[in-house]
Design goal:
Layout: H1 3-12, H2 21-31, H3 36-43, H4 47-54, H5 66-79, H6 82-95, E1 97-107, E2 118-126, H7 128-139, H8 144-160, E3 172-184
Helix pairs in contact: 2-5, 3-4, 6-7, 7-8
Pfam families: HTH_23
InterPro entries: Cro/C1-type_HTH (IPR001387), Tpg (IPR058118)
Organism: Streptomyces flavidovirens
Length: about 180
């Protein structure tokens, strides 16, 4: 995942996701009320395999393969705080989001213009429409370049064009992202 996708995930979760595969397995077991059979069906493995992964006997524990670890992570992400995610996403799409970043941002202008692309630290409120477009692209599996383009249009409209009141027709440059952070309005 890219920085923007990670930032969107952090926006909708109130508790951080389990950081390790073992913690993810424990979380799945907790979500499924301790049933290794249901966890196994979610992961597409046998019940005995899940039991081997979670056993606490010395030397008895085996580790999931890399492919299984990715599958565990994706299942945990899909099932982690579903009502909280839905509520926070609806709030972001209705009220908008605050976007905080350090990146190369500006528009193509004549040399020595104050708005020439350069490293900027920006904190900007973006509309709910931009949030909806970002979430739709994220859900569709859009890559980082497409999400960056959505943010560039939204930032250009809010930052340079002052909500559409001036500077129409500017070509916005938004590259070299150092970090991304989102917050609810």
């Amino acid at each position: 995942m890219g920085a923007i996708a990670d930032g969107l995930d952090q926006l909708v979760y109130t508790q951080s996701l389990p950081s390790s595969t073992a913690a993810g397995l424990r979380a799945l077991l907790r979500l499924e009320k301790g049933s290794t059979r249901r966890v196994a069906s979610l992961l597409g493995v046998s019940q005995r395999t899940v039991q081997r992964w979670v056993t606490s006997r010395d030397g008895g524990r085996s580790r999931p393969s890399t492919a299984h670890a990715r599958r565990i992570d994706s299942v945990v992400r899909a099932r982690w705080q579903p009502r909280v995610r839905a509520r926070r996403r609806a709030q972001a799409e209705e009220r908008g989001i605050v976007f905080h970043t350090r990146a190369r941002f500006g528009f193509t202008a004549q040399a020595a213009s104050s708005d020439d692309p350069r490293q900027r630290l920006i904190t900007q409120r973006l509309s709910g429409a931009v949030a909806r477009e970002l979430f739709a692209a994220h859900d569709a599996g859009a890559g980082e370049p497409q999400q960056t383009l959505i943010l560039a249009r939204g930032l250009g409209h809010a930052y340079f064009r002052d909500g559409g009141g001036r500077a129409q027709g500017l070509h916005i440059g938004f590259t070299d992202i150092e970090f991304v952070d989102f917050a609810l309005v």
